[in-house]
Amino acid sequence: MMKSKVLKENGEKVNAKHYQYKIFLSNKSEPIEYNSTEAVYSYEEVFEKICEKYAIKLSEGNIEKIEMSLVD
C-alpha cells in the first residue's frame, strides 16, 4: 500500500498518493505527461524535476502551461 504524499497548494496541505502532470509546450501538439509518486512540497520543485527529466531549459521559454492532477 502506497503512503499518502503531501503537496502544499496555496499554503494548504493536500493529501495524494499519485501526482499526474501535463506539460504543454509551444513546439509540440501533444502534452508531455509526467507521473510521480514522490512527495513534492512546492510547484517550483515539480517544475524543476520536469525540466530535468525532459531536458527542457527554462531559458527556452517554450512551456505554455502545466496542469496537475492529484490522484488518490
Topology:
Layout: E1 5-9, E2 12-16, E3 18-25, E4 32-36, H1 43-54, E5 63-71
Antiparallel strand pairs: 1-2, 3-4, 3-5
Keywords:
72 residues; alpha+beta; 3-stranded antiparallel sheet; two-stranded antiparallel ribbon; 5 strands; 17% helix; globular; disordered N terminus
What does this 3D model show about the protein?
Strands 4-3-5 form a 3-stranded antiparallel β-sheet, with no helix packed on it. Helix content is 17%, strand content 44%. The protein is globular and about 30 Å long. The protein is α+β, with helices and mostly antiparallel strands. It has one domain (5-71). The protein has one helix spanning 43-54, and strands at residues 5-9, 12-16, 18-25, 32-36, 63-71. A hairpin with a 6-residue loop joins strand 3 and strand 4 (32-36). The protein has 1 helix and 5 strands.
